[in-house]
Amino acid sequence: MSTATPRERVLEPFGRRRRLIDFLREFALIAALLGVYKLGRTLAVDEVRQAIGNAWHVWSFERTLRLPSELTFQQEAMRWPSLVTVANIYYAAVHFPATFGFLAWLWWRDRHSYRWYRTVLGVMTAIALAIHIAYPLAPPRMMPSLGFVDTGKLFGPSVYSNSDTDAVTNQFAAMPSLHVGWAVVVAIGVIMVLRTRWRWLVLVHPAATLAVVVATANHYWIDGIVGIMLIIPGVIATRWHPLARMRARRFRFPARASRDDLVPGDDLVERDDLEEPGHADRDNREAAPGGVPSPHSPLSGEDQVQGRLMAAERC
Known about the structure:
By secondary structure, the chain is mainly alpha-helical. The protein has two domains: 226 residues; 36 residues, no CATH class. It is globular and about 90 Å long.
């Protein structure tokens, strides 16, 4: 038997319609941003010479920092061809589905958290696009002179065409690695939202992503480091952006929203729940015999004590 009040049953169709509209709007927004990002990546596809030169600079800078050699890491991984094939599949098939699945899960579970993490990912992606355009970088797999191998072409599958440059994707967008940056954000979100001890297993995702992008020679170590550092401006944007603050004030959890269908963002429910001060107190006094509030009423402790004293005086 349903425990919903008559008012909740009346508003339920409106809440469902609002959630559907919100979902479609968010889907369209993310799809549009992804389209702009894909289009923007193509602006540097002809910067071959600069991308190769930047690759040599990055390689030299990493050696100055004494970072582990990506070449040694790839050569060790290639001792197990089946493992490299799995890495190619992981690189091609997990990045986008895992991130969008994470956002969809947050949207249904916690609308506040969804908007926060969506903003972080959006800011990270926008900054990464600017870096892709300003600093084209050839990935290690396009540096055979250093000994790297394109594992996608060698073992399959490959997410790129046979040509080193094409008009569809920008293969000189190695800096930074959004594969790594997004994976870290997903892991942080799952750990912060869930309370089960098994949530820590999600750390396997960013660790595996970092190992995969290096073993497949799609990124340098420093690409992943910069990708993780982009989380910082994303977090700052969620705290100081005026629109983010306005939305944080608007989308508050209703005081009585304990059912799943009463979700943040349903304005009809929120307005109905924000009753005038004293309205609930008056209803409880009228419902109780002799004007004495019920002990189960939502009145303050002081009001309940006064009510009991009045009842005692009558006796």
